[in-house]
C-alpha cells in the first residue's frame, strides 16, 4: 500500500520529533530528499518519501516510521 499524502515541514518534524525549523535546516544543508511537489513556492514530500529517508538517515535509532 502506497501513502501518497503530502507532508510539509510540520508533518515531517512531527514524524521525526524535531522542530519544523530543524527540518528546514536539513533541507538547506542538502540532507532532505528533493520535494515531490511544490505549490506556491512551498515544498511537500510524499509520506512514503519521508519514511524511506528516515529509514536510511544516519543516526536513525529505531525512531517510528
UniProtKB/TrEMBL annotation:
InterPro entries: DNA-bd_dom_put_sf, MerR-type_HTH_dom. GO terms for molecular function: DNA binding. SUPFAM superfamilies: Putative DNA-binding domain. It holds the Pfam family MerR_1. Residues 9-42 form the HTH merR-type domain. One of its GO terms (biological process) is regulation of DNA-templated transcription. Gene3D superfamilies: 1.10.1660.10. This is MarR family transcriptional regulator. It comes from Streptomyces niveus. The lineage of its organism: Bacteria, Bacillati, Actinomycetota, Actinomycetes, Kitasatosporales.
